[in-house]
Hints:
This protein is an alpha/beta fold. The protein has helices at residues 18-28, 40-49, 71-83, 98-106, 119-132, 151-163, 180-189, 208-216, 233-237, 252-264, 290-295, 301-307, 323-335, 346-354, 360-374, 382-388, 403-410, 416-434, 439-446, 450-463, and strands at 10-14, 33-37, 56-59, 88-93, 109-114, 170-173, 198-202, 217-218, 230-231, 241-245, 266-267, 276-277, 281-286, 310-313, 343-344, 379-380. The strands form five sheets. A five-stranded parallel sheet has the order 2-1-3-4-5, sandwiched between helices. Strands 7-10-13-6-14 form a five-stranded parallel sheet. Helix 3 links the parallel strand 3 and strand 4 (88-93).
Amino acid sequence: xxxxxxxxxxxxxxxxxxxxxxxxxxxxxxxxxxxxxxxxxxxxxxxxxxxxxxxxxxxxxxxxxxxxxxxxxxxxxxxxxxxxxxxxxxxxxxxxxxxxxxxxxxxxxxxxxxxxxxxxxxxxxxxxxxxxxxxxxxxxxxxxxxxxxxxxxxxxxxxxxxxxxxxxxxxxxxxxxxxxxxxxxxxxxxxxxxxxxxxxxxxxxxxxxxxxxxxxxxxxxxxxxxxxxxxxxxxxxxxxxxxxxxxxxxxxxxxxxxxxxxxxxxxxxxxxxxxxxxxxxxxxxxxxxxxxxxxxxxxxxxxxxxxxxxxxxxxxxxxxxxxxxxxxxxxxxxxxxxxxxxxxxxxxxxxxxxxxxxxxxxxxxxxxxxxxxxxxxxxxxxxxxxxxxxxxxxxxxxxxxxxxxxxxxxxxxxxxxxxxxxxxxxxxxxxxxxxxxxxxxxxxxxxxxxxxxxxxxxxxxxxx
Length: 464
């Protein structure tokens, strides 16, 4: 029996090789309720008698009486698709002829695994289809807000389910705007703490004393302006989850105090000598290179090892092939509840799919909001879309990734200097927006020093 009380997903296994089916049932029965059939007739009988649709089906194409042809297996796939359309069918077969693969997908299969195949790969592909079908691979609740079907985002969803109920801290790494807070919320939502509070504290938003008060609380008179006793985030979070965002910006003296909390659960309110006990699970997020911070003495190595007992990386949107299109539809549906929708024409959609989204999902969402507000009910052309994009570089190596530049160069008034100036201005404005006008952080993001950034900002103003 599984540790949780939820019903295991059902796996229909159709293969005439008893060695294969015995082995698969043995290794998969801990996670799935396995039903077996060895040919078309026995599988049809099983499919017809199933009251509830199986979650997954793993079907061999080469079934008796003619194991060298795919006809019998394809017939089983069609039967499953007709009788149980919600079942996700995977083909496990040595018949990997491209024609057979195409026909299997036409008949309803969603994945093809070639024999022989490692059992770990089979387990991974099965879990991937459960996630893609909206189910749970670990019985840990539903994932929300992580939209897409790329391998990168499906791996992240799987990792969330696997570690959600662990009591250990989690370090969440990823670029700005990629979805680190959404990941943290899902770690909380998929855990047994989900009915307890989920709180977020930005470590870069306060100075040292105020940040310590936010974390641990203070008593009346602890510092100038402390007119009342106040609880801190650790106390307010109770047995829930506390996300410490931008953890790399936590001052060194507070890093020592946080380490004490992680080691023995103890902390002190500012101005108080009685220790208190924290029971919240700590999640930490950063878009910075922690190892570089450790090397330069800005971050404690022992704290890093405590925080990264479990670690996940949120992929940048440019790494998630195909997800930009799904996110477009997702956010358009959300925005449509308040604003009239828009549509992208064919050329604009091509530009959308090729764009690299340097600001990640946050930038994508903001573009959709701006387009919905400025062009409700209209069809968007590429030149309009390009004006709303914060950068001009599309995905490196993507099909057609140079089309935007080629189109621009065909314009009669094209000038290289003007385009370079436009790119520079957009990059600087994006960096400043990402860091709420903080010039030091914007300069670091651009890979230049503060003085150089000021000089370039002055030149842009002069040109304007």
